[in-house]
Amino acid sequence: MTPAELSALNQQVLWAAFAIAAAFGALVQRTGFCTMGAVSDVAAMGDWTRMRQWTLAAAVATLGFALLSFAGLVRAPQTLYASPQWLWLSALVGGSVFGFGMVLSSGCVSKTLVRVGGGSLKSLVVTLVTGIAAFATLKGLTAVWRVHTVDRVAVDLGMNADVATLLARGADLSPGAAALAAGFTAGSVLLAFSLASRESRRPLNLVAGAGVGLLVLGMFWVTGHLGHLAEHPETLEESWLATNSTRAEGLSFVAPVAFALDWVLFFSDASKRLTVGIVSVAGVVLGSAAMAAWRRSFRWEGFAGTPDLGHHLAGGVLMGVGGVTAMGCSIGQGVTGLSTLSLTSIVAACSMVGGALAGVRYQMWRLERDAE
Fold this sequence. Notes:
- This protein is mainly α.
- It has one domain.
- The chain has helices at 3-31, 35-45, 49-70, 88-104, 109-117, 121-139, 141-148, 163-171, 175-194, 203-226, 254-265, 276-294, 306-325, 332-339, 343-371; strands at residues 85-86, 155-156, 228-229, 239-240.
- The strands form two sheets. Strands 1-2 form a two-stranded antiparallel sheet. A two-stranded antiparallel sheet has the order 3-4.
- α3 (49-70) packs antiparallel against α9 (175-194), α5 packs across α12 (276-294) and α6 packs across α11.
- This is YeeE/YedE family protein.
- It is found in: Cell inner membrane.
- Keywords: Cell inner membrane, Cell membrane, Membrane, Transmembrane, Transmembrane helix, Transport.
- Its main location: membrane.
- Belongs to the TsuA/YedE (TC 9.B.102) family.
């Protein structure tokens, strides 16, 4: 492969990632898909509709990833979530912190980016704060704390810490067959739950959940297959083009917001390059803005007052710190990571729900206190 061909392929990966992210932004803007909203609907009203949207997204992504793995296009050990260590404490603490933070911020990072596209200035502030906190947790002060505390507690499995790999070893199956069996089992359970009610089978809810799941799979295909080089012409090593992790990546938004800020602030640094994560941040905002403009729902929005500002700032910090510690957000771990059946992702996704439930109870307590 010549340098020109390599550059052209890199551009194809970036444009494809941008298109997928723009479609995600438009879809979420149109359907109201929201993890925080899903948890709050269940806790406050007993309404499981949006929760079933989320589980449908996870089901579609899990079933699809199983097929990708069986076909040999991309497997869990090739992804961002690949590790022989089960970082259960990082996932537990980080996921809980992220979940609580997304309630304070009125939505997770992906929803915040969608709201930026819809004209929310307070979501823009949350995005910036989240990015700063995330970057500090990647390379700064809170990164030191993370590495010397929760990241020290891990279980080394001696193989990739995902269900399919464990099944392949335990049942003496091929990696592809194990991925298919594990993925279809887990995906079928999630699918059955997500379609259990009549309301969840309405077209809008099906489009929301299945659409997000398919877009996650699309990103995995772009980074894990289209951008995959068995032997990079310069390094002679296996590589995945235009990813920050140098592995296959799906949709995720906490670390990418940090990388986007880094790219903007140090744009003149020749070593800084566009990646899938960076263009995804821009794609979600622009896709959401296009949908908001088309539906004439674009509205400027600011903070209601000082308490509102304080809670959103705190939420942004918690999402940045928690998201990096847990290795992803409610999309990055709750759908993308979960689809690989990573053990760390399973703990992170469950912890995010638990943290969000605590956040909802805190908000309800505030409302009751203010009403007295």
